[in-house]
Specification:
With 378 residues, the chain is an alpha+beta fold. It has two domains: 225 residues, Rossmann fold (3-Layer(aba) Sandwich), CATH 3.40.50.300; 126 residues, Nucleic acid-binding proteins (OB fold (Dihydrolipoamide Acetyltransferase, E2P), Beta Barrel), CATH 2.40.50. It is 25% helix and 30% strand. The protein is built from ten helices and 19 strands. The strands form four sheets. The protein has a six-stranded mixed sheet, sandwiched between helices. A hairpin with a 2-residue loop joins strand 4 and strand 5. The longest helix has 17 residues. It is elongated, with a radius of gyration of 25 Å. Bound molecules: adenosine-5'-triphosphate. Adenosine-5'-triphosphate binds next to helix 1.
Length: 378
């Protein structure tokens, strides 16, 4: 079993006299790509600055490659940090910036030939044009500068590479390319461990081996992208991933229109239903047939499908698929549901009634009230 490259135990960190990271535990092996996902202000940057040694920890320990660095100076930690905002010297060229970054590695001094080879390699990996090397960072576009800043972080070949919102302020196409680059870099590197922070769930799904969902300084859940997406442990985690975001249904409202679902679902034992919700992803809903006689009621079929009638309130063309807003007709007080369906699979007109179906295996009970989550409007 290889030794963990990063092992954080019970970490707590304070800013401005307040605890902003608390009870944080994370263990990563060499080469793992971890994305910390959370809303603005939840403590993501503070966490990275703590790992890098730029802010003192209040409690807990940080171990890198088996060495406790909790109180080690930042320059002596084998860590690279990409700051949220560019921090490149304006008077240096891109090439000089990369050279200084390599020299900052305390592990080993490189010969001139090795240095050139390292710069050439990172230039290719991050797709930096050779013509940029003699230029100063301010003469590059925001997206180009961000790539140079990432190259500067990676070129040291640190044991732990910390990336703070690497896609910030980059247009969609440039960030698509950058995501691909980062995915390639992490696949090629089995010695560098990545911790990447973002509030973008799609970015997390695209890159991560492990996702840490964070809120208010604490970890809500850790797991692979599919674990977090398919089996979130709370409504808050469920809402962190997926676009459009998931539907959260009030259990008692659903059971009032379809009591048979109560037997099919593993309902929370010994706790009020109101403290939980049923999570339903928009792509799990299918429109199966028009409800021509308007007399179809909610049922559970023998093959494990929940079928229920809806009125189509709204339909939006997303290009290749439709986003629908559906009002359950036998639960009129429930908020509308969001569904995504392939464009060629429906011809439904707004205002018509349909029978929907969902596989019961796609329903998840999650902690948290459906009432506190926003209802869907498109
Ligand atoms: N220098 C500081 N002094 C006092 N409080 C601070 C300082 N820096 C950050 N904070 C507070 O610490 C908390 C966590 O901030 P942090 O920057 O780590 O969050 P974040 O998740 O990275 O946010 P964002 O996604 O907006 O960058 C916030 O409440 C913030 O206001």
């Amino acid at each position: 079993m290889p030794i963990q490259s990063l092992d954080i135990t019970s970490l707590a960190m304070d800013r401005g006299g307040n605890r902003v990271v608390d009870q944080f535990n994370l263990s990563l092996f060499p080469g793992e790509y971890c994305v910390v996902l959370g809303p603005s202000g939840c403590g993501k940057s503070t966490l990275l600055h703590g790992i890098a040694g730029l802010i003192e920890t209040a409690e807990g320990s940080i171990v890198i490659d088996g060495q406790d660095v909790t109180h080690t100076a930042a320059r002596k930690r084998d860590v690279g940090l990409l700051f949220q905002h560019d921090t490149m010297y304006p008077h240096l060229t891109v090439e000089q910036t990369l050279q200084i970054a390599v020299r900052a590695n305390p592990k080993r001094r490189l010969t001139a030939a090795e240095m050139d080879q390292r710069i050439q390699s990172i230039t290719e990996t991050m797709n930096l044009a050779p013509a940029w090397l003699p230029r100063r960072p301010e003469t590059l576009s925001g997206g180009q500068r961000r790539r140079v800043a990432i190259a500067k972080t990676l070129i040291r070949q640190p044991s732990v590479c910390l990336l703070d919102e690497p896609m910030a302020a980059i247009d969609r196409l440039a960030s698509e390319r950058l995501l691909e680059r980062l995915a390639d870099v992490s696949k090629q590197s089995d010695s560098t461990t990545f911790v990447h922070v973002t509030h973008d769930g799609e970015e997390a799904m695209r890159l991560a081996d492990q996702i840490v969902v964070m809120s208010g300084g604490r970890i809500l859940q850790i797991g692979s992208p599919s674990e977090i997406y398919q089996s979130p442990n709370s409504a808050e985690v469920a809402l962190a991933l997926g676009s459009p975001s998931c539907n959260l249904l009030a259990i008692d409202e659903v059971l009032a229109s379809c009591p048979a679902l109560g037997e099919a679902l593993a309902l929370p034992e010994g706790q009020p239903n109101a403290d939980h919700a049923i999570m339903l992803r928009p792509e799990a809903i299918q429109l199966v047939a028009p409800d021509l006689n308007q007399e179809h009621a909610s049922t559970v079929t023998e093959s494990g499908l929940w079928q229920f009638p809806v009125t189509l309130l709204e339909r939006r063309d997303l290009g290749g698929r439709f986003l629908l807003r559906l009002q359950p007709t036998d639960s009129e007080n429930s908020p509308p549901l969001a569904a995504t369906v392939f464009q060629n699979s429906i011809s439904a007109e707004v205002g018509t009634r349909w029978i929907c179906q969902v596989s019961i295996s796609d329903l998840r009970i999650v902690a948290g009230s459906a009432r506190n989550s926003r209802s869907h409007s498109i």
